[in-house]
Design a protein that fits this description.
alpha+beta, elongated
């Protein structure tokens, strides 16, 4: 074999190994499923699912795999709502249920409750700012998810309060942000 052929072959092998390493280190290349993946290891990862109506009873199922090897948290963003709408979002009797299971049927997170102010494991806590509002639940934060596992997220809205705003909820998994001092 000529020296130049050996160099080309070595370069191809090195590039293939580097590409496989990058694909393993950058989950956007391996993510598959019902969500839209964005972000990276420095500023964190975000997986946005399709929007679901908050004011209608229903069950919504999402399948995905190839997540980052990070702790992730589930939030349900209230479309178009902010701090100004906090009272409207915290005084509803609409029931929200979330169930995240892995491909072996093991429960990763299970959350049930109504949106409220406060912090306990029986409610969906409302977080808000001048730009957005979302619901989160103690049982579905800092979940250690694995790149090799497949997951199914089932969200259920029931007992819809007539005061529930006619908006969409955007289910989002977030995690992997750097912990700065």
């Amino acid at each position: 074999m000529k020296s130049s052929t050996k160099n080309v072959a070595a370069t191809v092998v090195i590039c293939a190994v580097a590409l496989l390493w990058i694909a393993d280190e950058y989950p956007a290349l391996r993510f598959r499923g019902d969500g839209k993946f964005s972000g990276g290891p420095i500023f964190g990862y975000t997986i946005k699912m399709r929007k679901i109506p908050f004011d209608q009873a229903g069950e919504y199922v999402f399948h995905f795999r190839g997540l980052p090897d990070e702790e992730m948290s589930l939030q349900l963003y209230a479309e178009g709502k902010t701090d100004k709408n906090r009272k409207e979002l915290t005084h509803l009797d609409t029931m929200l249920d979330a169930l995240l299971v892995d491909h072996n049927g093991r429960t990763v997170c299970q959350a049930t409750g109504m949106p409220r102010d406060g912090q306990n494991e029986h409610i969906w806590v409302v977080m808000s700012s001048g730009f957005e509002a979302a619901f989160w639940h103690w049982n579905c934060v800092h979940m250690p998810l694995k790149p090799s596992d497949s997951y199914t997220l089932t969200l259920r809205i029931s007992n819809v309060d007539p005061r529930t705003p006619k908006i969409n909820l955007l289910p989002v998994f977030e995690g992997g942000q750097l912990d700065l001092p």
